[in-house]
Amino acid sequence: MTGERSADRALVYRLLARTLQPPEPARINAIKGEDLPELGSALKRLGATPELLAPAERLVECLLDPDLARLKREYESAFEVSGGAERPPNETAHAPESPQEGLTKSYELADIAGFYRAFGVEVEPGTERVDHIAVELEFMHLLAVKEAVAEVKGEPENAAICR
Question: How far apart are CA 155 and CA 143, in angstroms?
Answer without folding.
Answer: 14
